[in-house]
Design a protein that fits this description.
Strand order of the largest sheet: 8-7-6-5-4-11-10-9
Structural class: alpha/beta
Number of helices: 10
Radius of gyration: 21 Å
Order of helices and strands: HEEEEHEHEHHEHEHEHEHEH
Length: 360
């Protein structure tokens, strides 16, 4: 009897250790060492798309639906559909943006209920979430407040940090991408104002949430040495942990090769993770052409050892259901582009020699 009890005890003990270790492996934050991102001891590359509410097959759901209790069922169904579809496309990250409508208070609990629901769905599909805080920057602008005055962000950042700091399904924050270039317009923020803004906001965010990676948000105009954006100084701030770009060229079928070269090579030399937080093309260039452009971006990402490649946009919009004919979504209806994304997301570890493993 004692021997049976001892065997049973050992069995229960071993099962408990296995379960606890599996829970621990999942319940870890993404960290960085040099130019690489890790989950525990396993290196990870974040490959996926940007998610915001567009066409659900029957109707359009604008970003305002995140704040609408009456639209909760439709939003839930949309998020369920596209997170599951992202997993089938081998993505391991979704960046959520445009989630704060201008006609809502920024602390509307319905919004955070939906964001929490999205991170839960992503977890079920083994996908991480990036929270794009530029939604708040756009909210400030719409309410005629200085979006680059860190004082206007203080309460929001505290709320966000406390709300999300223990959520291991979140990969990172992007603060405010696509900042205005100081040299393009006299009313744009100056270089020193941008540095002060990102320093203050990233420091405050790290104070209330020391667990998640913080990006400035991807910068555009990185192919122009005369833009005046002090990107090297911003990417070197103590609480900005990645060098992030939005890789758009100046033509509908161009590839922002010079932006990859300038920022990617600089980040590699400084031991900072290089992140392509957004790239994309309109569907009206043709599916075959667009697939080739996507592939060119992925190749640049490989060349400059990108820690993440996130495209714009993941959803059901097409030129057939989009009245403005400006659709940029990737979905199974844009088959060649979809297959290009799927293949690159599936092979994201094999593309980079030396990766120890894949997480999520």
């Amino acid at each position: 009897m004692n021997q049976r009890f001892s065997s049973l005890y050992r069995f229960v003990y071993l099962v408990t250790i296995i379960v606890v270790s599996q829970i621990g492996a999942r319940a870890q934050f993404i960290t960085k060492t040099g130019t690489h991102l890790y989950v525990g001891n396993h290196e990870i590359r974040l490959y996926g798309g940007t998610l915001y509410l567009t066409y659900d097959g029957k109707q359009y759901l604008t970003g305002g639906a995140f704040a609408s209790r009456s639209k909760a069922k439709e939003v839930d169904a949309y998020l369920q559909k596209w997170t599951a579809a992202a997993a089938k496309c081998h993505m391991n990250v979704l960046r959520v943006t445009d989630w704060l409508p201008t006609n809502s208070g920024w602390k509307n609990p319905e919004i955070y209920h939906q964001l929490d629901y999205l991170t839960k769905l992503d977890n079920q599909q083994h996908i991480y979430t990036e929270i794009d805080l530029s939604a708040f920057r756009n909210w400030l602008t719409a309410h005629h407040k200085d979006a680059y005055d860190a004082a206007n962000w203080r309460q929001f950042i505290r709320y966000i940090g406390v709300h999300f700091r223990d959520n291991t399904d979140i990969a990172m924050y992007g603060i405010a991408g696509e900042v205005p270039a100081p040299n393009y317009k006299a009313t744009n923020p100056t270089a020193e104002q941008l540095i002060a803004f990102f320093k203050a906001v990233s420091s405050e965010l790290h104070r209330f949430d020391p667990n998640h990676l913080i990006s400035s948000g991807g910068f555009i105009f990185m192919d122009d040495p005369h833009s005046g954006i002090p990107w090297r100084r911003i990417f070197s701030l103590p609480d900005i942990q990645l060098a992030a770009i939005h890789a758009y060229a100046g033509s509908p079928t161009g590839v922002a090769g010079s932006a990859y070269r300038r920022v990617g090579s600089w980040a590699n030399s400084k031991g900072i993770p290089f992140m392509v937080e957004e790239f994309g093309y309109h569907q009206n260039v043709g599916d075959g052409v667009r697939a080739g452009l996507f592939e060119a971006n992925y190749k640049y990402g490989k060349q400059y050892h990108a820690a993440g490649m996130i495209f714009w946009n993941w959803g059901g919009e097409t030129t057939e259901n989009d009245g403005s004919k400006t659709a940029m979504d990737v979905n199974p209806q844009t088959l060649l582009t979809y297959l290009t994304v799927s293949q690159n997301c599936e092979l994201r570890g094999l593309l980079y020699p030396g990766m120890s493993s894949l997480s999520k």
